C-alpha cells in the first residue's frame, strides 16, 4: 500500500474544476497512480456501469481522443464525481484501470485540466496576414497589424483569446466549453461558428459580422444579446452604443481574406488607415479638405499604386509618393 496521504473529496473536486494550486494538483494526480488511488477509482467506476455508445469504441482504444469528446467525458463523468466503467462492446472486454489513468494524462496534455496561465502572443506586421490554428482545432485568419494573445493550453472549462486587430474565426463547436474572444470593451462568446471581428485599437468602431452559427455579444455598456447569421454588430467606442445592421452580403466583411478591398461610404481617414495596414505605407494629409471625401469601391488587392489610381478616378483627391510617404492633396 502507498503511504501517500489520501486527498479529501473537496481537493479532488478543486483539481477537476481547475481551481487547485499546483501542489494540490500534483498531489491528486500522483495519488491516482498509487494502489490506493487506483482502488478508489475502480470502486467509483463500479458504482455506475455505463457503456460507450455503440460505434464510439475506437475513440477509446489506441487512438488519440478528440478534445471535444474528451471534454464531454471528463465533464460528465469526473466533474460530477461519477467515474464510470467503460466497456468495449465489440469484444466485451473491460478497459483496465491503467488505461483510464492514461486517458487522464492524455486529456491533461491536450486540454490541460491542470492548466497554467502562460500566454502566447502573435503579432502580424503591417502588409502581412497570418493563420493561427489553436490546439482544439479552431483557427483564426489574422489581418495585417493584428495582435492576438491566447493560453498555451486552453483550460478544462473554457477557451479564451484576446484580439487587437481583425480576424476571421472558425471555431470548433463545443457547447459545454465556449470559445470567447475578448476585445476592448466587448466580449464575443461563441458556440461554434464563423465570424469576422474588426477591433483595431485606433479605430472608432468595433464590428462583429456573423457568417453562420451563433455568437453572444456582451459589454458593460449593453445587455448581452445574440447575433443571427447575416447580421453585423457595430459598436461605437465614443458613444458606447451598439447597432445591428444586415448587410446585403455579409461575406464582404471578410473580403480581405481573399485579397479584396471593399469600401462602402468609407471616409478618407478610414480608407487610408486600411491601406496603410494592407501595404505597410505611411500617409500624410497635406490638404485637410481631402478628409471630406468618402469612397465606395470594390477592387482587387494588387499594388498600392494601382489602388491609389483607382481612388483618384472617383474623387478629386491626388496621391503622390514623396520618399517613404504618400502625400494626399486635392487635385488642382
Automatic annotation (TrEMBL):
Residue stretches spanning the membrane: 86-105
Chain ranges of the FecR protein domain: 121-216
Signal peptide: none
Membrane among keywords: yes
InterPro entries: FecR, FecR_C, Ferrdict_sens_TM
Keyword flag Zinc: no
Swiss-Prot/TrEMBL keywords: Membrane, Transmembrane, Transmembrane helix
Domain (Protein FecR C-terminal): residue spans on this chain: 260-327
PANTHER family reported in the protein's UniProt record: PERIPLASMIC SIGNAL SENSOR AND SIGMA FACTOR ACTIVATOR FECR-RELATED (PTHR30273), PROTEIN FECR (PTHR30273:SF2)
Protein name: FecR domain-containing protein
Protein source organism: Parabacteroides absconsus
Amino acid at each position: 500500500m502507498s503511504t501517500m496521504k489520501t486527498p479529501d473529496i473537496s481537493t479532488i473536486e478543486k483539481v477537476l474544476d481547475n481551481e487547485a494550486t499546483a501542489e494540490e494538483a500534483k498531489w491528486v494526480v500522483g495519488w491516482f497512480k498509487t494502489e490506493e488511488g487506483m482502488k478508489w477509482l475502480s470502486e467509483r467506476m463500479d458504482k455506475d456501469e455505463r457503456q460507450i455508445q455503440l460505434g464510439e469504441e475506437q475513440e477509446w482504444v489506441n487512438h488519440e481522443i478528440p478534445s471535444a469528446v474528451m471534454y464531454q467525458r471528463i465533464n460528465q463523468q469526473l466533474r460530477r464525481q461519477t467515474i464510470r466503467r467503460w466497456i468495449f462492446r465489440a469484444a466485451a472486454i473491460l478497459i483496465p484501470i491503467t488505461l483510464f489513468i492514461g486517458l487522464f494524462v492524455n486529456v491533461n496534455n491536450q486540454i490541460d485540466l491542470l492548466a497554467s496561465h502562460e500566454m502566447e502572443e502573435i503579432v502580424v506586421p503591417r502588409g502581412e496576414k497570418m493563420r493561427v490554428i489553436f490546439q482544439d482545432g479552431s483557427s483564426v485568419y489574422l489581418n495585417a497589424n493584428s495582435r492576438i494573445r491566447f493560453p498555451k493550453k486552453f483550460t478544462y472549462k473554457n477557451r479564451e483569446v484576446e484580439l487587437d486587430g481583425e480576424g476571421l474565426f472558425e471555431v470548433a463547436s463545443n457547447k459545454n466549453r465556449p470559445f470567447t474572444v475578448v476585445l476592448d470593451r466587448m466580449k464575443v462568446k461563441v458556440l461554434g461558428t464563423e465570424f469576422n471581428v474588426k477591433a483595431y485599437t485606433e479605430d472608432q468602431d468595433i464590428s462583429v459580422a456573423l457568417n453562420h452559427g451563433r455568437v453572444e455579444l456582451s459589454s458593460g455598456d449593453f445587455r448581452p444579446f445574440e447575433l443571427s447569421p447575416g447580421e453585423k454588430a457595430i459598436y461605437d467606442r465614443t458613444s458606447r452604443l451598439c447597432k445591428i445592421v444586415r448587410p446585403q452580403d455579409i461575406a464582404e466583411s471578410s473580403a480581405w481574406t481573399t485579397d479584396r478591398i471593399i469600401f462602402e461610404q468609407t471616409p478618407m481617414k478610414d480608407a487610408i488607415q486600411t491601406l496603410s495596414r494592407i501595404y505597410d505605407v505611411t500617409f500624410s494629409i497635406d490638404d485637410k479638405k481631402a478628409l471630406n471625401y468618402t469612397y465606395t469601391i470594390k477592387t482587387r488587392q494588387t499594388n498600392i499604386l494601382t489602388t491609389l489610381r483607382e481612388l483618384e478616378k472617383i474623387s478629386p483627391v491626388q496621391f503622390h509618393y514623396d520618399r517613404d510617404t504618400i502625400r494626399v492633396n486635392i487635385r488642382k
